[in-house]
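Lecture notes, continued. The same structure-token format from the folding unit now serves as the input rather than the output. Read the line below as a description of shape only.
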């Protein structure tokens, strides 16, 4: 049985999720990461973690397919037993997401339901299913957005679901504290990744505008976020619980 802690990172094949996975590995935490579409990118992340001397496994998970969650958790238990010689994990990082900039008046019920599944409903019930196989000194880190604090046109659905996650995080902290499980939520500001069709990277005008809103004069990078999530999954953060931690460079401060 491994002595290292084990983390499950959803959406860990690229962008923020990849940096979270690598940052956890740098803290000697083994990683199980999920991907939805790109298995080869997920495998690349697995290999980078293995190069650091840690164990890593990738698994397919579609957060929009709510009915697949039970089968995923069953498969996860087999992976834990087969690859890590254990039945428990220590940390759950609910990172998987989808992005789309859609004006309020153009949002369809289908789009709303997809955002609801990916960013709230599936996270809610995946977390519920994983708690029984989580060690008592473990932790949950959810991912929110700066757009729950300040409004950005086109993000009404996304930000609403993230706002629901912020409330849920406080309830998780309250109700799971008796099990010794902490729950916190990290809220990135604008980050230059391929999220939302690389909306920031592909739009220099928007990037410049967002950079000007930060006292530090730039938008975020993936490696600005992962280290904070990894910190929350360490004994250094053992007394941080039920908190929203914005990692945005002070945008709109």
């Amino acid at each position: 049985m491994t002595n290292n802690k084990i983390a499950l990172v959803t959406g860990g094949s690229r962008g923020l999720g990849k940096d979270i996975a690598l940052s956890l590995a740098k803290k000697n935490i083994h990683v199980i990461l999920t991907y939805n579409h790109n298995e080869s990118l997920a495998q690349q992340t697995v290999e980078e973690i293995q190069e650091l001397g840690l164990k890593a496994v990738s698994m397919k998970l579609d957060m929009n397919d709510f009915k697949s969650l039970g089968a995923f958790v069953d498969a996860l238990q087999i992976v834990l037993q087969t690859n890590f010689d254990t039945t428990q994990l220590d940390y759950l990082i609910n990172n998987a997401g989808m992005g789309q900039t859609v004006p309020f008046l153009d949002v369809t019920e289908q789009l709303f339901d997809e955002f609801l599944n990916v960013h709230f409903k599936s996270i809610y019930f995946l977390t519920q299913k994983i708690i029984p196989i989580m060690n008592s000194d473990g932790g949950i880190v959810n991912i929110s957005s700066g757009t729950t604090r300040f409004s950005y046109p086109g993000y009404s659905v996304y930000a609403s679901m993230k706002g629901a996650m912020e409330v849920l995080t406080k309830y998780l902290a309250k109700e799971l504290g008796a099990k010794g499980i902490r729950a916190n939520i990290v809220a990135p500001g604008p980050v230059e990744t391929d999220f939302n069709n690389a909306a920031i990277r592909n739009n220099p005008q928007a990037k410049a505008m967002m950079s000007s809103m930060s006292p530090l004069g730039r938008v975020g990078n993936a490696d600005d976020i992962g280290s904070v999530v990894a910190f929350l999954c360490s004994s250094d953060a053992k007394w941080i619980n039920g908190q929203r931690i914005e990692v945005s460079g002070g945008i709109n401060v």
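Point for the exam: The domain at 6-188+225-246 is CATH 3.40.50.720 (Rossmann fold).
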